[in-house]
Specification:
Length: 329
């Protein structure tokens, strides 16, 4: 049998193996030890990480994971597995041949090393790395690139390698987001103020050159245009703060509380375009915690619009990205 023309390493953040304090501690230790995620000097960060974060946070966060855990495990992993299988199917249709797709997570399992081994064992000589982060950030996308480079240290013969850097303005991405919002409005029968809530990063990272907020703004502007929304009909915010320093603003939770108290807007539809798959940050923080923030403060209606997950238009986008970035292979 001839070897495949290329393979795809579908990458995402990763998630704990179980909704227990022990598994969450293991996951957070790996995640929060990455200098791309927390860039503080180690002498300063180690005592905080080991003395405070890893002794207090895992128990609380494990409870949050338990509230969203499914029969197939963590939503992020279950959805990523479905995306992997569906992309392989789409690529078979598109290229008329078998294109292996392996799933690799930056932290936890399945690892990027295991995905690389899977592709090697399938006879793949060229690899396209496709991080499922629409907007580039050094804390996410660049970290995946680091992991791939680290994995290759164990490898005597490198494959041909290409990376997808970001796709914040790809027409099929914007279209898939717009479709998901329009379907939601049709199902609800009414339209609330649209909130595009992105995972934040420390403001300092952006000041040091991380282009993430610019890419989020690009996505938001193009999505608002695709939906023909006037400026007063939508707002962009940042969620999921961690630690004491200032993160990108405006903050999602504070904005919703302010609106709830003011009674305007009375109804919001909230989505998170930075997440290609629903996860803790959308299903618990956005769909539950922030709903409570808004309604408790006086808001009237709050609806969460799911991530693109394994929607067909999302898989069409991923297929198009693969076709675009593998020309000549
Ligand atoms: C500590 C700094 C963090 C930075 C910077 C950060 C950036 C960032 N993260 C995502 C996507 C996800 N983050 C998720 C969870 C999560 N994020 C942080 C911290 C930072 N993220 C923590 C500590 C956690 C774990 C939960 C917690 O302890 O609160 C997830 C969900 C994972 C899951 O298992 O479901 C995703 C996805 C992006 C896109 C981003 C920067 C652009
Ligand atoms: Fe995060
Ligand atoms: Fe969170």
């Amino acid at each position: 049998m001839s070897s495949p023309r290329f393979g795809v390493l579908l990458a995402n953040l990763g998630t704990p193996d179980a909704p227990t304090a022990k598994a969450v501690r293991r996951y957070l230790r790996e995640f929060l030890s990455d200098r791309r995620v927390v860039d503080l000097p180690r002498w300063k960060w180690w005592p905080i990480l080991n003395g405070i974060v890893l002794t207090t946070r895992p128990r609380r966060v494990a409870k949050a994971y338990a509230s969203i855990w499914t029969d197939e495990g963590s939503p992020l992993l279950a959805i990523s597995r479905r995306q992997r299988a569906a992309l392989e199917e789409k690529l078979r249709e598109h290229f008329g041949e078998e294109i292996p797709v392996a799933l690799g997570m930056d932290y936890g399992n399945p690892s990027i090393v295991s995905a690389g081994r899977e592709l090697r064992d399938a006879g793949v000589k060229n690899v396209l790395v496709l991080p499922l982060y629409p907007q580039f950030s050094s804390s996410t996308t660049a970290s995946i690139f680091d992991q791939v480079a680290r994995a290759l240290k164990q490898c005597p013969a490198h494959p041909g390698l290409r990376f997808v850097r970001s796709y914040c303005d790809h027409p099929l991405y914007i279209q898939a987001l717009a479709n998901s919002v329009q379907e939601h409005w049709q199902q609800q029968g009414q339209q609330g103020h649209l909130v595009m809530s992105y995972h934040g990063i420390p403001k300092r990272y952006a000041e040091q050159g991380d282009p993430y907020p610019n890419e989020c703004e690009t996505t938001s502007r193009l999505l608002a245009e695709a939906l023909s929304l006037a400026p007063h009909e939508w707002t962009m915010t940042y969620q999921s703060r961690f630690g004491r320093e200032e993160w990108l603003q405006p903050y999602t939770d504070e904005t919703l509380i302010k609106w709830g108290k003011a009674g305007s807007p009375p109804a919001v539809d909230i989505m998170s375009p930075a997440f290609a798959a629903d996860c803790l940050e959308t299903l618990e923080e956005l769909s539950e915690e922030n709903r409570e923030n808004f309604i408790h403060a006086g808001g009237k209606r709050y609806a969460y619009i799911p991530a693109l997950n394994d929607r067909d238009d999302h898989l069409e986008l991923l297929t198009s990205l693969v076709a675009q970035h593998t020309q000549g292979w």
